[in-house]
Amino acid sequence: MQKQSRRYNSSKRPSQRSKEQYSRERYVAALRAKQKADTRRGIIILIALLLIILLVFFLVRGIQSISQASKTSELDKPAAAYVLDKLTVLEHKTPIIPMSYETQYGVIDTEDYDYERAKKMGSKDPILELQIILKNPENYPEHLLEKVATNPESLHFVYDYTEKKGSEPATKIGKPILVNNHIPLLLQFDEKWGYTIYGDKELATSGCGPTALCMAYSGLTGKTDQTPASIAKFSQDAGYYTPEGTSWEIMSKGANKLGLSSKQIPVSQKNIKAELAKGRLVVCSMKPGDFTRLGHFIVLTAETADGLLILNDSNSLQRSKTLWTYDVVVPQVKAAWSIGKSSK
């Protein structure tokens, strides 16, 4: 019996090992299959998450683009349509520039629109002239409509555009509207030369550089043979006009070519005071601020006994009649040139 039992037991051992091995192999195979399935599931989930993230990203970008396009469409709306939509004339002393226009374009405050200023510039009936402009915006370039909206002094000039556009400019500056320390104030929107094309727009809107240099030339030499229009032509012929505006070189090389003495100076109150004390003029390229929204040239003509600045601003009679402190002006100066009579 013992032998049979041993034979029986010994005959079963290989079968048991085979079953155990088979079970282990099945277990390992099942485990590997599960791992592969888990890996595939993880990859699928990861891809799905990435797709969701990309979808959300593009949706957000799309919403932002739509929002920005809506905002930009208002900002980029042609000035003609914008002015026509927004400006209203209610009565003689009612400001016509709504706060929404200032918010969109960053222009002057509504209270600054003064009809008396327009009257002083030659508008016999500023209300009537403005109504005619607003009823016929298609007759005026967009930049001129924006100009009259931001500078009431230009009202009569813009009103006369339909009749006087393309007119020949004057060959002499004539009697200036104002003289600051023997330097004549010449306005770039003066009808004597303002309709002259400088670059791609009227000198009235793009000609502060030539007008500033013309004021310096006329005041320092006492000559009247140059006008803003003739210096604008000189600027274009010499390559000082660029798509961005008048190059700073006009105030150095250009001034020297006209027989003046010019040098660029570091911007500081000390340097400006020193040059004015010598009887020289200081032409300044201005940053956005009290004088401009984009860029502008003004001429500092002298300093009063009280230490205030006298200046000529070709875009404003009112600002040219105002005395300014150094604290207000100097921080807005981007570059400055000291200009005087030639020593030759």
Q: Can you offer a commentary on this structure?
A:
The protein is of the alpha+beta class and 344 residues long. The chain has a domain at 166-344: Cathepsin B, Chain A (Alpha-Beta Complex). It is built from 15 helices and 11 strands. Strands 7-11-8-9-10 form a 5-stranded antiparallel beta sheet, with helices on both faces. Strands 1-2 form a two-stranded antiparallel sheet. It has a two-stranded antiparallel ribbon with strand order 3-4. Strand 1 (178-180) and strand 2 form a beta hairpin. Helix 2 crosses helix 6 and helix 10 (208-221) crosses helix 11 (228-237).
What sort of overall outline do the alpha carbons produce when their principal axes are compared? elongated
Task: Kindly provide the name of the CATH class of the domain at 166-344.
Answer: Alpha Beta
Q: Termini separation (Å)?
A: 142 Å
Fourth-tier CATH superfamily name of the domain at 166-344: Cysteine proteinases
CATH fold description of the domain at 166-344: Cathepsin B, Chain A
| Element string (H = helix, E = strand) | HHHHHHHHEEEEHHHEEHEHEEEHHE
Helix content: 40-55%
Radius of gyration: 38 Å
Mean pLDDT: 79
For the secondary structure, the number of strands is 11
Write out the strand line-up for the largest beta sheet, numbering strands in chain order: 7-11-8-9-10
Structural class of the secondary structure composition? alpha+beta
What is the helix tally?
A: 15
CATH architecture label of the domain at 166-344: Alpha-Beta Complex
